[in-house]
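tl;dr need the bound structure. longer version: we got a ligand (coenzyme A) that a collaborator sent over and nobodys looked at where it sits. i said id run it. heres the input, straight from their email, havent touched it
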Amino acid sequence: MGKTIATLFSGATATYEIRDAALDDSFLWPEEENILGGVSPKRRWDFVTGRKCARFAMETLGINAAPVLAGDKNEPVWPDGVVGSITHTRAYAAAAVAPVSKIFSLGLDAEPDQPLPQKVLTRISNTEELNWVERTRGNEIPHPGKLLFSAKEATYKAWNSATKEWLGFRDAHIIFHIENQTFTVSISRPSSMQKLSGTFGIDRGIIMTAIEIPVS
Ligand SMILES: CC(C)(COP(=O)(O)OP(=O)(O)OC[C@H]1O[C@@H](n2cnc3c(N)ncnc32)[C@H](O)[C@@H]1OP(=O)(O)O)[C@@H](O)C(=O)NCCC(=O)NCCS
């Protein structure tokens, strides 16, 4: 599934990813360090490396470096003029950022390309999605349940950043188009964002899903 993270988004969005790197917190802003506090080594790596990806992606866009703070629910609070999304999993971290003049909201998620426990699959899926997972498993996509889960997480990040509202797993119905590595999301809650488009890739053991909502 040869899509790299950069190809999941349009040219308006910059991305950066880090794999298997040692912890490097030398560049963390004091404001970001305050958010983190005393946490486990894994959480420290995730946060620090996600912020590093965000910093490098902003630099690619020519945006002056500034801290990415955190809101009440731990959501990233981006510098003025910027939208973005951060993800991390198992020694992998990535960020996508874009100017608000071009992009309304972004959602990026990464998961290990491994099976999703059946219990979780049942909890997050509607009947059609479950049937798709059963049909697809082991054919073109090794772990379609995990891909579905990731697409819902990316959807939540883009949705919540834009609306500040909760979205349940069953509020989003996802249809995958494997041939071009895209998916469409139908949101069942009343909103101006009823249909979203996403892309996905599987690269070196990591499933990546992305939602980019352009300014209309
Ligand atoms: C918030 C959530 C989406 C994070 O996803 P995850 O797969 O657990 O973790 P990831 O590593 O991919 O992402 C973590 C990053 O998401 C970002 N994030 C956290 N809350 C967020 C929110 N409400 N909106 C957008 N981004 C958020 C943060 O940057 C966080 O990293 P950081 O704490 O180091 O800054 C997930 O924990 C969650 O709450 N899901 C339940 C809601 C949901 O997914 N509904 C499905 C709707 S279809």
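gonna send this back to them w/ a short note. The CA atoms of residues 85 and 104 lie 12 Å apart.
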